[in-house]
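Hi R.,

Here are the chain sequences for the assembly we discussed:
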Amino acid sequence: MSLPALVEPAAELSVDEVRRYSRHLIIPDVGMTGQKRLKNAKVLVIGAGGLGSPALLYLAAAGVGTLGIAEFDEVDESNLQRQIIHGQSDVGRPKAVSAAESIAEANPLVNVVVHAERLDNDNVMRIFEGYDLIVDGTDNFATRYMVNDAAYFLGIPYVWGSIYRFDGQASVFAPTLVEGAPCYRCLYPEPPPPGMVPSCAEGGVLGVLCASIGSIQVNEAIKLLTGAGDPAIGKLVIYDALELEWRKLKVRKDPNCALCGENPTVTGLIDYETFCGAISEEAADAAAGSTISVTQLEGMLKEREEGTRDFVLIDVREPNEYEINKIPGAVLMPKGDFLNGSALEQLPSIDSGTQVVLHCKSGVRSAEVLAIVQGAGYDDAVHVGGGVVAWVNQIDPSQPSY
Ligand SMILES: [Zn+2]
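And here is the predicted structure of the full complex:
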């Protein structure tokens, strides 16, 4: 189903613009009018990371007149494998500033608006307001639900994308624009249980996958802005890079959707961190009073060397992560082995009095495992707050972070 263009055309294109966009102008579905619509368009891209990098560059090159960047983070070396809008000399600089500079180089005619703040309930409505379209490149569930809800309340359509390892998904959500069109909550009414779905930082992402999905998002954005073609409203695009397979599934509006359904229960912004539960209740209970700092761990490791203390330090990350950096003396037993019970058999017996100390990358997975280990009777088990990230930052900066 084609839709009317989201944006009215600008009055005219300058001679420079006609030269620059000539390959668009000769496409019948875009043409002079479509290009004038792009010039008049205001698009907000959330995140200048994996998806935001190609999205921002292609939206800028395409001649979108006003591009907003919502990004609070700084460029890290581990971003450069996929976040191609940033370069080596940008490491340590704000991503929003680095992205704005790359856009100015790609197309100086674009008006860039930088929102260098973390999106939250207090600012999201103010930041979104005035944009014609949003491109969501966020990488966490709490922000994703917040973007969905805020866009719905403001009546702004948005293009969503997500990436993980070799798998990507994309869709367009416009429930206020098209009757019967679903929102993100219709597709995913509830976030996955905390600890079940690893983030890109935990699970990894193929760099070029960002370009595959980011370019699909720009493709859909241009169609919506100009009215060309048939946007992916009510359709879920699924990409499997390993099989080189694209699939398109129908997504229906859920009449019971908490946001856009017949009897909505979400009628304003909610507490998204709690809704998505960064950490499960069991894990939070286990970690309360059973969390040690990396400095404490350093002291304990010295005592173990001197023979005055007995404990086993267990790293519950994945083998690939263990290869990148590690806390000396840690034994690798991935979280999955605790979930299926096989790791419990390898623990020292409860009677031996050997304490179990767990750590992961940042302390989320180790808290989940702590709940399992304490539940198995290891009452004095503890986990390391901040995990190996804190260890590298505070104790051993010679190791790489990721
Ligand atoms: Zn919905």
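The longest helix spans residues 207-226. The CA atoms of residues 140 and 285 lie 23 Å apart.

Let me know if anything looks off.

Best,
T.
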